Amino acid sequence: MALPSTDTSRHDNTLAVIRTLRDQGPVARVDLGALNGISSATVTSISAELLQQGLITERPPEIPRPSGRGRPKTLVELNPQAACVVCIKLSINEIQLVVGDFSGQVRHSEHHAVPTLTLSADDLEALLEEKISAICAQQLKGFQRLAGICLAVQGVVSSQSGTIIWSPALSFRNAPISARIAERFHCSVLLENDANCIASVLAAQPAYADCPNLVVIMLGYGIGMSVLINGVPYLGANGSAAEFGHSKYQPDGALCACGRRGCIEAYASDYALYRAAADHLNLPSGDSAHPSEQQMQALTQLALNGDPAAQRIYAEAGRALGIGIANVLALFNPDLVLITGSGVRGFDAMQATMHHAIDEALVTELRGSTRIESCAWDRDMTCMGGIAMALHATDAQTLSESQASAVS
Amino acid sequence: MALPSTDTSRHDNTLAVIRTLRDQGPVARVDLGALNGISSATVTSISAELLQQGLITERPPEIPRPSGRGRPKTLVELNPQAACVVCIKLSINEIQLVVGDFSGQVRHSEHHAVPTLTLSADDLEALLEEKISAICAQQLKGFQRLAGICLAVQGVVSSQSGTIIWSPALSFRNAPISARIAERFHCSVLLENDANCIASVLAAQPAYADCPNLVVIMLGYGIGMSVLINGVPYLGANGSAAEFGHSKYQPDGALCACGRRGCIEAYASDYALYRAAADHLNLPSGDSAHPSEQQMQALTQLALNGDPAAQRIYAEAGRALGIGIANVLALFNPDLVLITGSGVRGFDAMQATMHHAIDEALVTELRGSTRIESCAWDRDMTCMGGIAMALHATDAQTLSESQASAVS
DNA sequence: GTATTTATTTTAAGGGTTAAAGTAAATCAA
DNA sequence: TTGATTTACTTTAACCCTTAAAATAAATAC
Predict the structure, then answer these.
(1) pTM, whole model, 2 decimals?
(2) Does nucleic acid strand C have an atom less than 7 angstroms from the CB of A403?
(3) Where are the transmembrane segments (chains A, B) (predicted)?
(4) Per-residue pLDDT averaged across A112-137, rounded?
(5) Which of A 9-28 have CB under 7 A of nucleic chain C?
(6) CB of A354 closer than 8 Å to CB of A322
(7) pLDDT for A25-76, tens place per residue?
(8) What is the CATH number of domain A9-61+72-78?
C-alpha cells in the first residue's frame, strides 16, 4: 500500500555499476561489489535487472580459460547498442561531430569547415540541426536510443540555462541553443565549455588519478582553462569561471582580443605571439590576427632554433603564463596544473621563464606541492570528453527509460 | 541474523533534523519533515530517539497560544546542555577563547594578550592546554560532554592533517597541533583558517542565503580570503588555497611580508598602507611595521578628510584590490564578494579606484553579475564561525556516543 | 572421482521509509 | 455545552533495499 520510491540507494548503486563498467570495461559481479562497496548479492540483483533491460550483457567465457582454481568469473559488460550520444565541437570555422556508444567508445567522427563567424544564431541552429539529422540518419542504426547531445563550445557558456554567452567562434551572443536542439531531437542536450571536456578526459587517465583538484590550461588561438574540484568542473555563478586567459599579468599591458589590457592571453596566445613577432621577423604571410598552424609552427621553430627576437617573445609569454599560474596556485592550490592545447608546441620555449616567474612570485609554502606539467595535444580529446560527460549526464534517464520499457 | 548498518538514510535524516534545529531554533515535527523532505512519521521516530538520548527536548506550549485552528504544534529544540564546543582564535599577540553550547549559542568569551611571536611550538601547546583546561574547569559545568575544539588560525593550515603550516602570529612552522590537543582533551579537534570561519558565519546570514559561491576577503594586518563553493570552504590540495593576499598586482612591485614582490597584500594591508604613509605624513608613532588600530584609524581619517597623500595611498590600495578581485572574478565567478576585516575601516577611501580597476580589467561578460559588497567587521565573528563549524563536524560523533550511552 | 576453491544465486532476516488509519488537542458554530 | 472541523502527532502495516548465510555452480588439484 506504500509507494516509497524516495529510497535512492538502489538507484545510486545501479548507476555506480553502470559507471564502473564504463570506466573499467567487462567486470565480474564479485568485483563490481568490491569496487563499489556493495555485496555481491546486491550486484546479482542489480545485474539481473540490467540484463533484462538490455543495458548490459554477459560476456561469453574466454576460450583459453584464465588460470586459477574455483568457478570462473562471468564478466558482464555494457551493451554498446543500449544508447548512443553525439558530441559537437564548435570552434572557429570548424565543427566536429562524433558519435559515441553506451560504453563510451567513439563510433564515428567527422569534421566540417564552416564559416562560423558569419553565422547568425538561427543559421547556427539550422546548421546544427542539419548536421545532427544527417549523422542520426547515417550512423545511429542499431542503437536503442539517442540518449543525449553534447555541445562543446569554446568560450563562456551557461550549462544550467543552455545558453552560449560568448564564444570567439561566433559573432552573436546569448544564444539559448540547448533548448531548441533538445526539442528538435527529443533528448537532453548538455552545453559544455571545451576546456571542461578536455579536463574530464585527462582526469580519467590513470596518471592523474590522484589529483582530485586539477587545473587544465589550454593554449591556442585563445587561452582557456578548466578547474576540476573533486573531479567535477567548477562552473561558478554564470559558467564564466576559470577564465584564466583574461586574468591579469600587467595592468595597462598589451591589448587583448577581449578589448581590455594586460590579460595573460594578450601575451601567450597564438595571436599575441604572432602579433608580437610580425613586426620583427620574416614569417609566412597570411591573416596575422588569425595565424594558421603553419604560421605558428614557423614562429615556434624560430624560437627553438635560437632566433633572439623569437626567443624574447616566447620568454615574455612564459613570464606572463608564470604569473598567471602563480595566481592560480595561490587561489586554487590544485594538485596538478596541466598545460595543453595546440599552443603547447611552443611550451619548451616558454618553460624556463614560466617556472622562474612562478618561483619569484610565490614563497614555497604557497607554491605548495603542485605539479606543473605539459601534455601532448590531440584535437579529438574535446569530443571524447563531451561523449563521456553526455553519457554520465544521461545515465539516470537512460536507466529510468529502460525500466519503463522493460515493464511494458 | 544480518547486521546491515550500511544504510545511511536514518543517520543522514537524524543529522538533518539536528542541523535544522540548530539553524532554525525550535521547530515542530511536521515542519521538520517538510524542511527535510521526510515524512512526519519518520520525524516522530527520529525525535523519539533523540528525546530518549537527551539531545533534544520538547518545548512547553506557549502561554498565549498561537492563533489558528487544529491541534497546536509541539516544538522540539536542541538541548543546549547536550554538548559544548570550545573555539580558540589565534591571532598576533592575542588569543580568544569562546564556549558554545549544542544549540550553537555563545556561552562565554575571553581574550588574553599573549606574545605569540616569541612562543615555541611546545610553548604554544602548553599555553593552549592551560587555557583550555581552565575554561573547561570553570565553564563546562552542566554540559554532558565536550564535543570538540576548534582552532581558528590566521595563515596556512592543513585541516586534514591538523598542522599549522605557516601563520603570521607564530615564528615556527609545520606544527602538528591538532593531534596533541585531541589527545589531551579526548575530543576531536578541528583546525581551521580564520577566514573560513568568518565566511561560514556570513554565508549563514539570510541576506547571503542565495550565494552558494561566496568569496570573503578579510582586510587587516594581512589579507586573507575564503572561498565557499556550494557553501563549503574550498581548501585546495594542502589547505593553502584562497591566498588572495599573495596573488599578484604588479610583478616586481612592492615588497610583501612574505618576502616576494607585488602581492596585493603589499599594497592594501594595514602594514602596507602605514609603510607607504610613514614617510610622507605626520602620524602617531609606534611600531610602523605592526601599526595599531589607533594608528590605522588616524591614517584612514586623513584619507577620508581629504589629505592628498593619504588619499593617493588608499587609491593605489584600491587599485591593487580591484585587480586582485578582477582575477578572482575571472577565475571563480562567484555570486558575491564580501570585503570585511578590520581593514574595512578604509574601504570608503579605496572603493572608487577598486571598482574602476575591476571595470577596466574585465569585459562585462566576465565581470558577470557578481555583487561586490563590504560588510561591517566584528572581532567575535571568527569564533562564532568556529563554534558552528566544530558543532557541524562533531554532530555525527555526538549522535553515536549518545546512542551508545542511551543503550547502556 | 573426490576435495577444494571461487563465483553466483537464493533465502531469510533486519533496518528504513511511508501511506493510511488512528488518536489527540485545539477552534468554530450552533 | 456539544459536536463538527481542523491540524498535529503516533501507530500500523506494507514495501523496498541490503546483506549474511546457505545453497548451488563450475572450475582446478590431487
Answers:
(1) 0.93
(2) no
(3) none
(4) 96
(5) 28
(6) yes
(7) 999 999 999 999 999 999 999 999 999 999 999 999 876 677 788 999 999 9
(8) 1.10.10.10
